[in-house]
Amino acid sequence: MTQNSRIENEKKSFVIIPGRDMGLLAAEDLRHLADIAHDYEVPAVKITGAQRIAFLGVAESRLGALNKDLGLPATMPHDRGKIHYVQSCPGNRWCKFGISDSPAMGKKVAALHFNRPLPYKVKVGISGCTICCCESWVRDVGLIRGRSGWKLIFGGNAAAAPRIGDVIADGLNDREAIDLIEKCLAVYSEQAGKNIRSARFIEQFGSEKFRKSVLQ
Ligand code: SF4
User: Fold this and answer.
1) Which of 140, 147, 139, 215 is nearest to 176 (CA)?
2) Ligand 1 pocket by C-beta < 6 Å: which residues?
3) Is 7 exposed, middle or buried (0-12, 13-18, 19+ CB in 10 A)?
4) b/e for 174-196, b at 16 or more Cβ within 10 A?
5) Residue 52 CA, ligand 1 centroid: distance in Å
6) Residue 159 above 50 pLDDT?
7) Measured by CB atoms within 10 angstroms of the end CB, which terminus of the chain is less buried, N or C?
8) Which three-class secondary structure state does DSSP give residue 4?
């Protein structure tokens, strides 16, 4: 389990989101989660759009014990020097169309840590082939694997004001893709105001200017 967050809703009940990045769960993980959901009488369990698992409607009084049983700290505020989440498709290990091991690439991207806080949430979608099952065009950072390498997309968003991201480069190997993601997020951090999502930043800053800034 690598991520956990807590959201208070209007009825003052809580949501626990334990999950492994990219939705990869072993049988032991599922058994452990099922046992905890049963023991704590969690009213609903949901697989989220971010490939995590939410325990819905947990009473606040039980949060501490539940987190402990999950092996998580009581609270874990989001680290703004890290990417919010990385989702990936199953990749070539499990999918016949896959060209690349996208979960392995996802782990490399999720491990990145930045010297300065990112302006806002950065969500990453990694697709192991051009069929693009992982919504890479509408994530802050998207990777799509083609025959010649990774296509890197920046500034996408799937929320209330959706935006298809801009292609920053194509034909990248793993190392080049990681380096370019770091450059993109460095320019974003330096140039965007706090709480500005990458899609809005790119609209203000200009796609071409951004591309030149990160490729120079
Ligand atoms: S993006 Fe390609 S490799 Fe990934 S699940 Fe979809 S078809 Fe398979």
Assistant:
1) 215
2) 89-91, 95, 97-98, 127-129, 131-133
3) exposed
4) beebbebbeebbbbbbeebeeeb
5) 19
6) yes
7) C
8) coil
CA dihedral angle for residue 8, residue 185, residue 105, residue 135, rounded to 10 degrees: 60
Between 192 and 51, the more confident residue is: 192
Q: Which domains does the chain have, with CATH numbers?
A: 6-70 (3.30.70.3340), 85-215 (3.30.413.10)
Q: Are 131 and 116 in contact (CB under 8 A)?
A: no
- Cα–Cα distance between 107 and 93 in angstroms, integer? 15
Q: What is the DSSP letter of 157?
A: B
Q: Over the stretch 123-150, which tens digit does the pLDDT of each residue have?
A: 999 999 999 999 999 999 999 999 999 9
